[in-house]
Write a structure and sequence with these properties.
Layout (H helix, E strand, L loop, with lengths): L1 H13 L25 H18 L5 H12 L12 H11 L1 H13 L8
Length: 119
């Protein structure tokens, strides 16, 4: 189950640069209206890092389940009253909203322990 946490962490770290509801899991979208705008280089670095993880694990068993979990987390963004990203509230919302996706990923990894994405 460690890789699920690792992939979630990659997505979570990427939330600073690759957050919000736009496009695919690795595409940048500003989550909250008053968040500072990252530089083009920061956006590219975040997207490139995310895309490298996707390329590395895409063909592995359980990739779809873990991608679903990561997408869910990306789409449960909470903004503060000031219009900036609220990491604590977003994590809490994702724990509830993404529970079934996490459960599916964990069940898949239990059935496919040799999958690289599950290590």
């Amino acid at each position: 189950m460690r890789k699920i946490v690792t992939l979630a962490a990659v997505v979570g770290v990427g939330v600073l640069v690759v957050q919000g509801c736009g496009g695919g899991i690795c595409s940048y979208s500003k989550a909250c209206p008053n968040d500072p705008m990252p530089t083009a280089a920061e956006i590219k670095a975040g997207e490139d890092s995310c895309n490298a993880s996707v390329k590395q694990y895409q063909g592995q068993p359980c990739y779809g389940e873990i991608e679903s979990y990561a997408n869910c987390g990306k789409n449960t963004v909470v903004c503060t009253a000031q219009g900036t990203y609220d990491s604590s509230a977003s994590r809490a919302k994702a724990q509830t909203a993404c529970a079934s996706q996490l459960s599916n990923a964990q069940a898949c990894c239990a059935k496919n322990p040799s999958s690289q994405i599950c290590h």
